[in-house]
Amino acid sequence: MEFQGWLFDLYPLDSVMILWVRGEDGRLHRLQDPFQPRFYAEGKKGTLLSLFRFLQERRFASGYQWIRKREFWSGEEIEVMEIEIVSPERYTQLPRLLPPWEERLNFYNCDIPVAQLYLYEKGVFPTGRCRVECEESCLIQIHPDPGESVWEEDEPFPDLRVMELLIVNQNGSNPSLGIECEGYREEMDVLDIEEIVRLLRHFDPDVILTEDGDASLFPLLLSLEKRWKRSIPWDREPHPLQRSIRSEGRSYFSYGRTYYQAPAHLLFGRWHIDRRNSFVYGESGMEGVIELARLAKIPVQRMARTSPGTAITSMQLDRAFQEGILIPWRKGEPERFKSAWDLLVSDKGGLVFQPKLGVFEEVAEIDFTSMYPTIMVLHNISPETVLCRCCENHRVPEVGYTICEKREGIVPKTLKPILKRRAWLKGRMKAYDHEMGIGEGKAEGGKREIYNRKQTALKWMLVTCFGYLGYRNARFGRIEAHEAVTAFGREKLLRAKEICEEEGFELLHAITDSLWIQKRGLKEEEVLELCERISKATGVTMTLEGIYQWIAFLPSKGNRESPVANRYFGLFKDGKLKARGLAFRRTDVPPLIQKAQIQMLEILSEAKNVEEYRSKVPEVLEIFLETEMRLKSGKIDQEDLLISKRISQEPSAYKVDSLTALAAQQLEDVGMPPHPGERIRYLIRDGASKDKSQRVRAFPLVRPEDPHDVKKYQEMLAKATEELLIHFGYDTTQLLENSS
Fold first, then answer.
1. Which strand ranges, in their side-by-side order, compose the sheet holding 207-210?
2. Does the bond joining 146 to the residue before it have cis omega, within 30 degrees of 0?
3. Interacting residues of 462 by C-beta distance below 8 A, sequence separation 6+
4. What secondary structure, in 3-state letters, does 593-633 show?
5. CB neighbour list of residue 622: distance below 8 Å, 6 or more residues apart
6. What stretch of H or E contains 537?
7. In 97-197, at which residue ranges do the beta strands (DSSP E only) sit?
8. What structural domains and CATH numbers belong to the chain?
9. What is the DSSP letter of 184?
10. Which residues, 6 or more positions from 266, have their beta carbon under 8 angstroms from its beta carbon?
11. To 5 degrees, how large is the angle CA 445–CA 451–CA 456?
12. Strands 162-169 and 207-210: what pairing?
């Protein structure tokens, strides 16, 4: 039988790959493919033959052949042994068997996730159109539909039937469950497995969408299944599956913070998307998840739970696979030796010109578009091209690193089509604004919004590609390549600054890829001409973010004379307010304070210039006093006073009794220990109490009769107000004194 359809899901099961393909008639087909992955080893032939016999005796290997492939770092072809593994299951076990052989052999392509490896080899991708040839449930051949490409405007995937599951009440022994699907809604005050089974079979959803499903909902429902000895048909997979109840995920450290990722509860033949456990979904919705899954060739459920950095890495792996480049198992290129002077010159990062403090009018913000990814493409920066062994051009400014002129790097090859697609998506957004009107184009679910979500997903992938270039454990990472990008970035920002000053603009602030410039009588046309000149001079597109009616640059919290690069807010001429580093954007500020500051900013957004800004100060102070009166009256929803903090270690490991540590310890004491990297919420009851148990109350242990520390919340409110009025002589101390 032959048919056309869309690849919905795939996963390894025992010795085969299972594929779910939705046909053009809407029917889902379950297909089996006896996939035999391959990996490569390089070394002395006698040792390689011993390795093969070792794997064959343990029923891992089914055959081998000698083949020539390209080595990543040198680009030269080398002879390797290609070893065929009997099944996907055995392939995943290879990393446990190979370490004793590492001193004598080099291994390649041996630890790629099986589903991704399958997609690389077959040339298909999740939700992509494909042509299938099969006999009953056995797949004979699958290949992409002619003309189908991840880089073209994709044909819409057939509508997905989505069922939402939500724990409505987590307190007590009988939490209630909310279920919604295709207009049907039900709330179960008492969990009824039979009713859940009935609804799943009736609606047969393609997607189960949850809030905290990985960490809470699925462990709860799986434990009820075990207790009542009744299975819920979560999967479409007919093969019997044993599910384990996993309530603990993993904590990891990244960019100076500890993060926590809940355990993944994946379904087979159906998708489970946990909104709270998906960065990509939170930033770009289902459209963004599918966009990255298609480009990276990562199954949709996995893509929802992984990072944009993993997506860009998968695209690089795919590129290497298609070009016959061996993918190293371990990163084999150490950082070269650097003297203290070399480190001082090269390890600088992005260039920052600290802002001038105050409130300014007639200011334009101009930004380089995707600066670092564009630099990588423009200058051919990749781990294997920087400090290559064949060129001596010393192209990189300041540091003098060489960049290869004979071959294009895997990183720029991967980034080039992403940059092109994102530019195309943004172009389509602008076209919809003109064709359909701004309001209609931006409507929820509109075509413009779909394009926006997709380009947002690509933005995050482009943002992380630079960080992964310098990540010490990255498959295609090298610190010198990372340093080369920042060196070019500093040069281009300096050139942009010089051009601005040549055109009579004054630089107020600049940070990595953005500049804030001022000029009396500033007009949009001359700023656009300036952007065009900078674009030609640097090779990186410069765009106008907007022209401010006024903008305020704020000082450090610890020193009023010291500026801070990322604390500012201002009003564009189109009425849009932009803010960075303010209280309402921080998760450790209670919702009450956030809402109050947003109200204050709404008042200030009515001001057209600095004088009108000053005239709005009394109205801002009224909001401050009204909120303060609410705090004193006690007539506030307790959830509006909860502070959210991320814990960095186990509750019992804290040595200082901070409010956050005390709240974490309270949760541990009642059998709800938070994991390092998780956020906890708590109410400040009496921050100065000698009795530690009375200082805070962790959520959900907060009781209706619990008081709140008025003084502590007043201080937070005053600090949030100070951020907006500090340039007009108001500070926290003065605000608190005047209110008392």
1. 184-188, 176-181, 162-169, 207-210, 271-274
2. no
3. 370, 372, 373, 415, 418, 419, 422
4. HHHHHHHHHHHHCCCCCHHHHHHCHHHHHHHHHHHHHHHHH
5. none
6. helix 524-538
7. 106-108, 129-135, 138-144, 162-169, 176-181, 184-188
8. 352-407+476-581 (3.90.1600.10), 619-739 (1.10.132.60)
9. E
10. 11, 272, 301, 302
11. 110
12. parallel
> Amino acid identity of 703?
R
Could you give the CA distance from residue 514 to residue 557 in angstroms, rounded to a whole number? 23
Q: Which residue has the tokens 């001079």?
A: 537
CA-wise closest residue to 542 among 526, 553, 529: 529
> Alpha-carbon distance 673 to 684, whole Å?
19
Separation between Cα atoms, residue 223 and residue 218, nearest integer Å:
8
The predicted pLDDT at position 662 comes to: 94
Residues whose CB is less than 8 angstroms from the CB of residue 666 and which lie 6 or more positions away in sequence, other chains included: 682, 693, 696, 697, 698, 701
DSSP letters, 289-306, are: HHHHHHHHT--HHHHHHS
pTM of the model: 0.90
3-state secondary structure of 1: coil
Q: What is the 3-state secondary structure (H, E, C) of 449-471?
A: HHHHHHHHHHHHHHHHHHHHHCC
Q: Return the closest-CA partner of residue 309 out of 191, 177, 173, 461.
A: 461
* Residue in the block written with tokens 């307010």: 577
> Which candidate, 468, 283, 443, 245, places its Cα nearest to that of 376?
468
Q: How far apart are CA 580 and CA 200, in angstroms?
A: 44
Pairing of strands 162-169, 176-181: antiparallel
Per-residue DSSP letters for 401-421?
Answer: --B-SSS--HHHHHHHHHHHH
Q: Which residues contact 483 (CB under 8 A, 6 or more apart)?
A: 346, 347, 396, 399, 401, 470
Angstrom distance (rounded) from CA 390 to CA 396: 16
d(CA 512, CA 348): 11
C-alpha span between 682 and 642 (Å, rounded): 5
Q: Which amino acid is at 695?
A: R
The pLDDT value recorded for residue 172 is 46
**Contact of 178 with 186, CB cutoff 8 Å:** yes
* CB distance 401 to 395 below 8 Å: yes
pLDDT value of residue 440: 42
The residue type at 433: D
Cα–Cα distances (Å) from 706 to 27, 297, 576, 594, 658, in that order, read: 56, 51, 40, 22, 19
Q: Where are the beta strands (DSSP E) in 329-386?
A: 352-353, 358-368
CB-based contacts of 431, cutoff 8 Å, min separation 6:
none
CA distance 478 to 411: 11
Dihedrals phi, psi of 360, to nearest 5 degrees: -125, 150
Sign of torsion, CA 623 624 629 630? positive
Classify residue 550 as exposed, middle or buried by CB count within 10 Å of its CB (0-12, 13-18, 19+): buried
Place of tokens 């990509």: 280
DSSP SS3 for 23: strand
Residue 124: predicted pLDDT:
95
Q: How far apart are CA 65 and CA 59, in angstroms?
A: 17
Kindly report the backbone phi and psi dihedral angles of residue 627, in degrees, each rounded to the nearest multiple of 5, phi listed first. Answer: -65, -40
C-alpha angle 454-459-462 in degrees, rounded to nearest 5: 130
Question: Among 47, 118, 41, which Cα is nearest to 82's?
Answer: 41
- CB atoms near residue 684 (< 10 Å): 22
736, exposed or middle or buried, with CB in 10 Å at 0-12, 13-18, 19+? middle
Calpha distance 585→594 (Å, rounded):
8
Other beta carbons within 10 angstroms of residue 160's beta carbon come to 15
Q: Residue 163: enclosing H or E segment and its boundaries?
A: strand 162-169
Q: Report the pLDDT value the prediction gives residue 255, as an integer from 0 to 100.
A: 59
pLDDT value of residue 154: 60
pLDDT at 430: 85
Sites in the chain below the pLDDT cut of 50: 172, 439-444
Enter the tokens of residue 498.
């010089």
